[in-house]
Give the backbone structure.
Amino acid sequence: MQLRAQLIDGIQLLSTQGRIDQAGAEPFSAALSPYLADCQAGQPAIVLDFAGVEYISSIGLRALMLAHKQATAQQGRIAIAALTPLVAEVFAISHFDQVLKVYPTVADAIEALR
């Protein structure tokens, strides 16, 4: 799993594709790790673009929870944008959309975190 990164308006946009499940959660966490290390007060916030994520399992949600906890502990900010319908359903059922900031579009997320 790879993250495509680009800095937009002082926000670190990370785009990913595929499945964040048993096989994909660890590579996702490893790819996210260097960006999380820099997600601190006064540093760029992170927006995860999930438009290309087909599925997320409970282990994928765990990876996101750990990322959220790390960013929060470092006084950083992290949000998710552009959930696909299936992933949005998983977030709603698990109430994960109430744990993390979720935005309908990348543009909305960037505007909110700017």
Summary: The chain has four helices and five strands.
